[in-house]
């Protein structure tokens, strides 16, 4: 569902890397400039922008600005920041594309649970660089470990730390040391005439005492014959015996001492003390992770179905599945974090322009063209392996042609997979052979249709209709905010009640009641605020009301049972008689598909999940809801596994996951489901 990067705040390796690139002096200068304040333009949708003074507060814990009607509430905490991007990359900047903004003066701060963006324009590039550097520094959780910790602990600002301030600091840092031990180290570090307090220099000594790792100290003692340092030979022996390293040369050991030893005298003697040794042992050099695995080291020449593929569902959403905003930024976000399959739900929009949105909900819309431009820009920045673009098509023929036009114009050669086509047609191509390519996953016109036909009918009963009827909010004449909010609450309550029935009817299935309860509680937290926010933007539209009641609850709430042989035979007979039928023998829903859009689907043809698992070509992709897939795993695991050995399958989340929670993929990975 909605995806986001892992927040790396507090990652020690990230901190070390950052401090390598930015001197303490430079960062402190940035902090000073930010605390003094910088006049910037805050861009907003539909306005020319607001000139505000932005500044970092004294505690370096939040960004503030003035003037503001919010007064003291006009702030963004550093803890809530997710990412800072340079240049005009966000939705807001794209809307101001005609205003000739200098990209070097633009940056965006993403923050909050719903990835809100603060889009800022500075007077010159240097100001933007200062803020970008400073914010990234703060986000990384960096404190010049002694300097900023000392300032934070010095509550009265007198430049000294007493024992009580030290106790409070250690409590805040979750350092669990006996008070007797802390007091002993405090007294050892307190060497000047002013007893009872630590200066900055004395605090640095105290900090190093506190940071000393007993296990590393004992290890050094064992290999140094109880000296306070290791010689080149002793360090080499330690690396061979403890770290199991091979080919440890004197030159390599000398490099370690030169890089990690902080005492110049020790460097000259060719030895490493406890501080340098601790620094070395805690560095990435000693990570258990194999550094060769930072790069792709697996065989990438196998067929595409032999790999698990990082995937995203309803990629454009920033929060829950009913009320949240849709943003193109989400595509940039997930693609740069490794995602190789993204989803685009296409619907008819105004002025002949297709839109991307989560249909039948209160989520917002974004232009299809903007989504494709964003995907094109960010698809291969961090990863050259192919991107699967899952098209959920709800558009008229005319707008389908516009979709195909944009795909061809914007993606260009990225859609050209002729080289991969010339290989073995019985297997899918490899990720290696598809590097830099975008595969369109969608419906294809049937082969029996005349090549001259510009359109045809295809099945419309797979994941394109993943929102069950009683989840769909349909337009009618509403009577205000309270009506919509009331309708959503009633819908959630009715689903919760019905789920109790489903759980009782099929006790072997996962507890939909528990799932829905979590969803219900999560959505309630921001329902009132979210629904009002959406309604303000949609006064001209008819309000959305509740759904018709659920029918046949068991078939939807519990896992479906294994197909009976007679049902399969009946379906087969109906197919031979002509027409398209679903698993229950009822006539399938169909839709019109444009030849232009169909022609762009090559290796990833979406077919109805009701088809038999032992039929189809390697390019057919089957999509299942997690509930239907669970039934297949429980009852037809061997057949499902065999299918996944030659084709791709996609498992999408239950419609009950309104809070955008994810199912555990391990259950489906076990039988080879890739997406």
From TrEMBL:
Please tell me whether the keyword Heme is annotated for this protein.
no
Q: Which GO terms describe its biological process?
A: lipid catabolic process; phosphatidylinositol metabolic process; phosphatidylinositol-mediated signaling; release of sequestered calcium ion into cytosol
Task: Enumerate the spans annotated as PI-PLC Y-box domain.
Answer: 597-675
What does the UniProt entry say about where the protein is found? Cytoplasm
Signal peptide limits: none
Q: Which organism is it from?
A: Pogonophryne albipinna
Can you state which reaction this protein catalyses?
a 1,2-diacyl-sn-glycero-3-phospho-(1D-myo-inositol-4,5-bisphosphate) + H2O = 1D-myo-inositol 1,4,5-trisphosphate + a 1,2-diacyl-sn-glycerol + H(+)
Example of a GO MF term: phosphatidylinositol-4,5-bisphosphate phospholipase C activity
Protein's name in the database: Phosphoinositide phospholipase C
Taxonomically, the superkingdom here is: Eukaryota
Location of region: Disordered: 547-586
Q: Which PANTHER family match?
A: 1-PHOSPHATIDYLINOSITOL 4,5-BISPHOSPHATE PHOSPHODIESTERASE ETA-1, PHOSPHOINOSITIDE-SPECIFIC PHOSPHOLIPASE C FAMILY PROTEIN
Q: What is its main location?
A: cytoplasm
- Species lineage: Eukaryota, Metazoa, Chordata, Craniata, Vertebrata
Record-annotated EF-hand domain positions:
150-176, 177-213
What does the record give as EC number? 3.1.4.11
A Pfam family recorded for this sequence:
PH_12
Question: What cofactor requirement does the entry state?
Answer: Ca(2+)
């Amino acid at each position: 569902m909605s995806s986001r990067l892992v927040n790396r705040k507090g990652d020690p390796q990230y901190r070390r890397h950052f401090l390598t690139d930015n001197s303490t002096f430079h960062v402190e200068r940035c902090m000073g400039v930010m605390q003094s304040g910088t006049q910037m333009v805050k861009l907003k949708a539909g306005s020319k922008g607001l000139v505000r003074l932005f500044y970092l507060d004294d505690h370096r814990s939040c960004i503030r600005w003035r003037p503001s009607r919010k007064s003291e509430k006009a702030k963004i905490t550093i803890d809530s920041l997710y990412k800072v991007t340079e240049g005009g990359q966000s939705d807001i900047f794209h809307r101001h594309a005609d205003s000739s903004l200098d990209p070097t003066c633009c940056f965006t701060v993403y923050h909050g649970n719903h990835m809100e963006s603060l889009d800022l324009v500075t007077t010159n590039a240097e100001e933007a660089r200062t803020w970008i550097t400073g914010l990234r520094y703060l986000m990384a959780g960096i404190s010049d470990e002694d300097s900023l910790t000392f300032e934070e602990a010095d509550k009265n600002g007198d430049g000294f730390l007493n024992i009580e301030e030290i106790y409070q600091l250690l409590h805040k840092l979750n350092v669990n040391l006996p008070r007797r031990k802390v007091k002993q180290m405090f007294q050892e570090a307190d060497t000047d005439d002013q007893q009872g307090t630590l200066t900055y220099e004395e605090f640095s000594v105290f900090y190093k005492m506190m940071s000393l790792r007993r296990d590393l100290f004992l290890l050094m003692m064992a290999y140094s014959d109880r000296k306070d340092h290791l010689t080149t030979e002793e360090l080499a022996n330690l690396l061979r015996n403890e770290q199991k390293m091979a080919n440890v040369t004197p030159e390599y050991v000398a490099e370690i001492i030169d890089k990690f030893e902080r005492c110049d005298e020790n460097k000259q003697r060719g030895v490493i003390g406890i501080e340098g040794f601790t620094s070395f042992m805690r560095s990435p050099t000693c990570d258990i992770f194999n550094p060769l695995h930072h790069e792709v080291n697996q065989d990438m020449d196998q067929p595409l179905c032999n790999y698990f593929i990082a995937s995203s569902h309803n990629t454009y959403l920033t929060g829950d599945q009913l009320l949240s905003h849709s943003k193109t930024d989400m595509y940039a976000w997930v693609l740069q974090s490794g995602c190789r399959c993204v989803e685009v739900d296409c619907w008819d929009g105004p002025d002949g322009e297709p839109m991307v949105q989560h249909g039948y909900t209160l989520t917002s819309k974004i232009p299809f063209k903007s989504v494709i431009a964003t995907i094109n820009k960010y698809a291969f920045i961090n990863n050259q392996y192919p991107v699967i673009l899952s098209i959920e098509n709800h558009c008229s023929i005319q707008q389908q042609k516009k979709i195909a036009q944009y795909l061809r114009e914007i993606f260009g050669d990225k859609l050209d997979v002729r080289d991969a086509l010339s290989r073995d047609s019985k297997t899918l191509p490899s990720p290696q052979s598809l590097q830099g390519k975008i595969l369109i996953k969608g419906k294809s016109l049937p082969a029996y249709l005349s090549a001259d036909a510009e359109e045809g009918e295809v099945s419309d009963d797979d994941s394109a209709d993943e929102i069950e009827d009683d989840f769909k909010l349909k337009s009618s004449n509403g009577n205000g905010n309270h009506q919509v909010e009331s309708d959503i609450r009633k819908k959630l309550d009715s689903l919760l009640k019905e789920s109790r029935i489903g759980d009782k009817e099929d006790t072997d299935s996962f507890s939909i009641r528990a799932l829905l309860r979590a969803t219900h509680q999560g959505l309630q937290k921001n329902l009132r605020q979210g629904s009002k926010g959406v309604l303000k933007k949609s006064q001209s539209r008819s309000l959305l009301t509740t759904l018709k009641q659920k029918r046949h609850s068991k078939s939807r709430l519990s896992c479906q049972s294994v197909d009976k042989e007679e049902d399969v035979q009946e379906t087969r007979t109906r197919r031979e008689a002509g027409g398209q039928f679903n698993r229950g023998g009822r006539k399938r829903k169909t839709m019109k598909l444009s030849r232009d859009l169909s022609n762009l689907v090559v290796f990833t043809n979406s077919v109805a999940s009701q088809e038999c698992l032992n039929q189809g070509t390697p390019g057919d992709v089957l999509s299942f809801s997690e509930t239907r897939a669970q039934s297949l795993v429980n009852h037809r695991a061997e057949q499902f596994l065999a299918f996944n050995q030659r084709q791709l399958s996609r498992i999408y989340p239950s419609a009950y996951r309104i809070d955008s929670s994810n199912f555990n993929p391990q259950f489906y990975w076990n039988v080879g489901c890739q997406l």
